[in-house]
Amino acid sequence: MTEQDTKYDFVRSIVADDLASGKHDSIVTRFPPEPNGFLHIGHAKAICVDFGIIDEFGGKCHLRFDDTNPSKEEQKYVDAIKEDILWLGFDWGENLFYASDHFEQLFAWAVHLIENGDAYIDEQSPDEMRAGRGSLTEAGTNSPFRNRPASESLELFHKMRAGEAAEGAMILRAKIDMASPNINLRDPAIYRIQHQSHPRTGDKWCVYPMYDFAHGQSDAIEGITHSLCTMEFENHRPLYEWLLAHLPVTSTPRQIEFARLNISYTLTSKRKLKTIVDNGFVDGWDDPRMPTISGMRRRGYPAAALRAFCSLIGIKKTEGTVDFALLQSILRDHLNDSAERRMAVQQPLKVVITNWPEGHVEMLNAKNHPGDEAMGTREVAFGGELYIERDDFKEEAPRKYFRLKPGAEVRFKYAYYLTCTDFVKDEHGEVIEVHCTYDPETKGGDSADKRKVKGTIHWVSAAHAVDATVRLYDHLFNEANPEEGGDYLANINPDSCEVITAKVEPALAEMFDDAVQFERAGYFVHDATSTPDNLVFNRTVAMRDSWAKLEKKLQS
Ligand code: ATP
Ligand code: MG
Asked: Closest Cα to atom 10, ligand 1: which residue?
């Protein structure tokens, strides 16, 4: 192993070697999305690779829209893709391309192939063509049109372009080898008829290049040096290279494949995500449960955390599935440092302080971050009636339950020590009110005699708290492998979004873009629809579930 092998992943090693050997003076990569849906977390990985390499080694990364199938592509996807890449922290600058920019050159190159006897017009029906392709174990059979004169193919190709042929009536195929063990080399289709208006070229064209003909050729036109893609294109590489070898290209890009990103409980296929959106299982592409970049942004995932995640999983050749918990743990690490703290009560239970001076309100100082003084403090109102979490009181509690229980003393964060003296139940036997006394000598949450209080709980003042709609998200799928059983729609989790009304401190009515920690509960962010009068929060990620585990242990 050379030093470089240990310093770099295999793609970066190739790039470093090509620079060191002088094969390339500078590197050009590209990110080539098809504008037929929103980008997802798998694309985030590809973006971090394509643009990240340029950040490290210098050069350029092109953003190229692979807009060769007008029946599925739309401008709104182009706009969303651009917004997502910029948000993720990358910029193509002046290097914005569309495969459709190259249509004229691609057509000329198709003509070049025909003239050289390397392509022909096939007029078989789609079914005949499929049957003639053979299978993994059987060679294909030659089309009866395979050896027609180049002049005839040329004439038909121009007819196709002129709109004089129906969709499916004929197609341009590269003439390679119908007996090749690689099915992609069995005379692949390279140009087809589509009587479709194109978002950019309008009605200028009714023939469109197939992906395999557009992609590598666009790479060559744009001077891409390293064309990075996912493993499913490995079998296409011989075709990629065959086409470059049979065309008068002036630059020869190299295709390199790496493994797709798969994450448990997550689908990374635009087509399937589109089905979920179109069938109303979620509220649009940017629903916070979606693994789309826009969904994750709306959910409060910091771009830096996504970049860190992509960097940590790295680039490999072998496919695997990354545990969703890894992403959550990276999110918590980032948010723990960056998120301000606020108090919010999700399942409110009223506390009445029986020895509190009637009508008295005290403004207490609360830290915005326990570890970062620079984030400052804020004032929080405290009065004789408070809300705490329902879970923070138990009538009959085990010995190790350090929250409120009859007779126990607990610290109310930033406030006082309170001792539970009594509680009130409704006619169903449910506790609806807890009575406490407070110790005036413990203001700020410390006692002069330093007596030990094991539990600290959060609270909001009943008179000052505001209501907020809070969406508690869970996995969109019930199964770690969403395809389990063969039908991802059947595995959609019907309880992936629980909506509650929480009581939150008024400081949360200030609008901000960054995630905030609801103390002890998790990280939350204002939803895009949130307003000061109608607060809506999305849970980005819950706290580490050590709390839930402890709870379970206590119950067992
Ligand atoms: P999908 O199957 O979701 O539609 P795609 O590959 O068809 O994905 P494109 O828009 O063609 O979508 O992809 C643009 C780039 O993103 C390609 O280079 C592709 O290899 C890469 N990419 C797509 N999905 C993943 C993934 N899960 N992990 C890593 N890279 C991906
Ligand atoms: Mg694709």
From this structure: 33
Least Cα distance to 388 among 365, 377, 369, 404 occurs for 404
DSSP class of 101:
G
| Angle of the 103-115 helix axis to the 150-161 helix axis, nearest 10 | 160
- Residue 546 falls within a domain, yes or no? no
Which letter does DSSP use for residue 194 in this model?
-
Total domains in the chain come to: 3
- Catalytic-labelled residue, pool 12, 173, 175, 270: 270
Together in a domain, 306 and 349: no
Domain endpoint, select from 285, 317, 336: 336
CA–centroid distance, residue 216 to ligand 2 (Å): 13
237 and 380 part of one domain: no
User: Beta partners for 524?
Assistant: 516, 539
Annotation marks residue 270 as catalytic: yes
Cβ-Cβ contacts under 8 Å for 176 (sequence gap 6 or more): 185, 186, 187, 188, 239, 242
β-strand 60-65 against 96-98: which pairing, if any? parallel
Annotated active-site residue 186? The verdict is: no
Q: Is residue 507 part of a domain?
A: no
**Is 138 a domain residue?**
yes
Q: Going by C-beta distance under 8 Å and a sequence separation of 6 or more, which residues neighbour residue 549?
A: none
Note the pLDDT of residue 211.
Answer: 96
Active site residue 390: no
Range of the domain at 365: 339-465
Question: pLDDT digits over 202-261, tens only?
Answer: 999 999 999 999 999 999 999 999 999 999 999 999 999 999 999 999 999 999 999 999
**Nearest alpha carbon, ligand 1 atom 16:** 43
Residue 13 CB burial class (10 angstroms; 0-12, 13-18, ≥19): middle
**344 and 388, same domain (yes or no):** yes
Judgement on whether residues 433 and 332 belong to the same structural domain of the protein: no
143-153 residue pLDDT tens: 999 999 999 99
pLDDT band at 551 (very low <50, low <70, confident <90, very high): low
Catalytic residue among 34, 74, 128, 362: 34
pLDDT digits (tens, 9 = 90+) for 339-394: 999 999 999 999 999 999 999 999 999 999 999 999 999 999 999 999 999 999 99
User: Are 350 and 387 a contacting pair, CB within 8 Å?
Assistant: yes
